[in-house]
Amino acid sequence: MNNPFFSFTTKAVSLLALVFVIHLISLNALDLPLFENKIVLSYIVNLILVIVIFGILYLLKEKYKSQLGFLFLAGSFLKFAVFFILFYPYYKLDNSITKLEFTAFFVPYVIGLILESVSLSKWLNKLD
Q: So where does this one cross the membrane (predicted)?
């Protein structure tokens, strides 16, 4: 049987790894620093959060079927909390968040959010 959690995890790792490589290639092409602004940590943390949140939703799918949308939103709030705890203080050291700092966090966040939303939507439609 096709396990949605395993399938999602494989997609998330593959997609974020690909986007990470593209992100580094873009930075290199623009002659910008590759591994600054906590970019590696950002991709890893976003990947872990996306997998954990999807996993929790998968585990709770039967008991809290009607509340899964709210649980998904709670997961999004968790991601913002992690941003403000792990990244924001570092980015604000110079009293300004640069475009490079913003994209280092925002690119993997958005890619993870899109993958999570699309996968969860398809998965929930199959549950009905």
A: 39-60, 67-90, 102-124
